[in-house]
Amino acid sequence: MKLIEYADRDMLAIDLANQLAGELNAILNHQDRATLVVPGGTTPGAVFDHLCDVELDWDRVDILLSDERWVPADHPRSNTGLLRERLLTGRAAAAHLLPLYLPKDHPEEAIPALEEQLRPCLPISVALLGMGGDMHTASLFPRGDNLRLALDPHAPLLLPMRAEGLEEQRITLSARVLKEAINLHIVITGEDKKEAVLRAADLPPEEAPVKALLGDATVHWAN
Ligand SMILES: O=C(O)[C@H](O)[C@@H](O)[C@H](O)[C@H](O)COP(=O)(O)O
Ranges for the Glucosamine/galactosamine-6-phosphate isomerase domain (predicted)? Predict the structure, then answer.
């Protein structure tokens, strides 16, 4: 695991946004399109605020979430809502959003259609992930009902995920799709998450799912 520590959260947001933009640009120099994966949750908003104004051929970028809560985009807990508000605005409004939600009762009913749209956009060019204090990343939760399959090297692209204590059903990219990203980053803030990511490095992925990705990722941290 490579860990980069920043002086403060503002520096992290600015520097990380520039790094992500540089990596997307490098991909766009030799490919028609690039795929950017981003997390939901509360941490990435500040990164989005800088990234959305970066000069880039945004109309050649496909953006999708690492995972989504199974609620419509206008629901306050929708990660898609956060993306529309904070990332798909300014210059980045020209990017194409790949959906991770369809109005069906359960993710299982939507996964075949969502996977069909996702397949031509792989491998991911640049993936940014968040991490919870329980060492989950995307919706790969330690007690997730589909965790074992989601960690399997032959896992499908997308999986439904449910876990005790979660407010909604989730849909998530599998670990192998995230691991195959050309550039992989994890963004975390606060002492508790730094301790958690260091602890995860010594645990099996079944207990600390983020571990499945740590070997391939750069972790960005500020207090
Ligand atoms: O939908 C979500 O919640 C996420 O995509 C999730 O994996 C998130 O990145 C972590 O839970 C960290 O969330 P915070 O940044 O809010 O701590």
Answer: 8-221
Where exactly are the structural domains of the chain? 2-205
DSSP letters spanning 44-96? THHHHHHHTTS-S-GGGEEEEESEEESS-TTSTT-HHHHHHHHTSSGGGGGSE
User: Does ligand 1 have an atom closer than 6 angstroms to the CB of 137?
Assistant: yes
The atom of ligand 1 lying closest to the CA of 137 is: 7
pLDDT in tens, 33-90: 999 999 999 999 999 999 999 999 999 999 999 999 999 999 999 999 999 999 999 9
The CATH classification of domain 2-205, taken from the options 1.10.3210.10, 3.40.50.1360, 3.40.718.10, 3.30.1330.60: 3.40.50.1360
This complex has an ipTM of 0.96
